[in-house]
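Consider the tokenized backbone below.
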């Protein structure tokens, strides 16, 4: 099995020793022991701080995509109207997910290298379409961009849109996420990005308004949110909880909170700025448009002309550096360095850009 001393993929991130040690601990049966319920409650409290919310946070067993599906299936019924605000592959993908479960979806779309700015078209669509749900992505990982969401939240409140759904998987813990201030009803996260835990846990905050709708929809699939509303109070979960996963998630969250969120955000911003400066100094071009907001957790770079991505990837791997390729229309054209969580490390980034420079000169 090949491993790489310089891991810079945008998730799953490098797992710190403190988190790995907790994950490898032997636990009891999570659905029967008081110790697990205490751990779940502590983890939920820590995640509330990271998501900027007082709302209940549901913790589920499964990679971050689980939260995206769980929230859609639990809150939507066929023919419900969804307005998807899309600036990248995940934004457009969420629209397709909602459409696949029977929702009527309209998309306000930008190019994948842009971020939200003028919301005039969005407001016009809200007025004309009257959606039940607005969806958006905070950090578009494939694009290396970060969307400002406060404006969407204000439109949601002003026009009385019932639900605001946000994929914050790649931003939560690495940059401010203010679910309550931005009026987010369903704010989705995952363990494998900035929290630097294994990729087996998802979580999301759920507002009181969202819970009312979830009760009405009454979705009963394995990924349903409804059973989690009372799971902790009743000490009864819909399936056997993943004690190791919750413990690792809590350990990752605890490391961020021990550092202090302000300090953590500053660390991510500093490493990201250094990465972008070094990339530009090499003569490479950043994928985000000049007017777009770059993400502090991932940098997307155009593959240089005359060098195929498989060859560049192979050169980097031979030197111990692994970065992220890309998906869909960006496949083979854009690669990414993930400086999130434990990988928002200046020493690691310095080594990574040195290897990248050498690989380009070969």
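A designed sequence for it:
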């Amino acid at each position: 099995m090949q491993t790489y001393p310089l891991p810079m993929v945008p998730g799953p991130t490098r797992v710190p020793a403190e988190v790995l040690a907790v994950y490898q601990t032997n636990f009891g049966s999570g659905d029967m022991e008081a110790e697990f319920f205490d751990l779940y409650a502590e983890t939920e409290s820590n995640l509330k701080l990271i998501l900027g919310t007082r709302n209940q946070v549901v913790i589920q067993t499964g990679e971050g995509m689980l939260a995206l599906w769980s929230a859609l299936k639990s809150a939507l019924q066929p023919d419900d109207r969804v307005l998807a605000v899309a600036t990248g592959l995940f934004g457009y993908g969420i629209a397709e997910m909602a459409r696949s479960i029977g929702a009527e979806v309209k998309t306000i779309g930008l190019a994948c290298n842009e971020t939200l700015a003028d919301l005039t078209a969005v407001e016009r669509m809200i007025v004309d379409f009257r959606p039940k749900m607005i969806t958006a992505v905070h950090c578009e990982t494939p694009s290396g961009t970060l969307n400002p969401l406060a404006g969407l939240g204000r439109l949601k409140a002003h026009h009385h849109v019932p639900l605001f759904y946000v994929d914050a998987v790649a931003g939560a813990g690495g940059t401010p996420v203010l679910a309550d201030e931005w009026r987010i009803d369903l704010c989705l996260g995952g363990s494998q990005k900035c929290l630097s835990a294994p990729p087996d846990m998802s979580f999301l905050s759920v507002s009181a308004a969202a819970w009312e709708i979830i009760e009405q929809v009454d979705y009963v699939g394995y990924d349903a949110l409804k059973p989690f509303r009372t799971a902790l109070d009743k000490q009864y979960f819909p399936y056997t909880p993943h004690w190791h996963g919750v413990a690792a998630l809590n350990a990752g969250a605890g490391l961020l909170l021990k550092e202090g969120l302000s300090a953590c955000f500053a660390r991510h911003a500093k490493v990201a700025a250094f990465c972008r400066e070094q990339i530009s100094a090499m003569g490479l071009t950043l994928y985000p448009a000049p007017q777009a907001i770059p993400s502090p957790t991932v940098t997307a770079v155009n593959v240089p002309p005359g060098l195929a991505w498989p060859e560049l990837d192979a050169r980097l791997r031979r030197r111990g550096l692994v970065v992220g390729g890309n998906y869909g229309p960006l496949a083979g054209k854009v690669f990414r360095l993930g400086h999130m969580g434990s990988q928002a490390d200046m020493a690691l980034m310095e080594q990574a850009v040195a290897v990248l420079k050498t690989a380009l000169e070969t």
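The first helix runs from residue 17 to 23.
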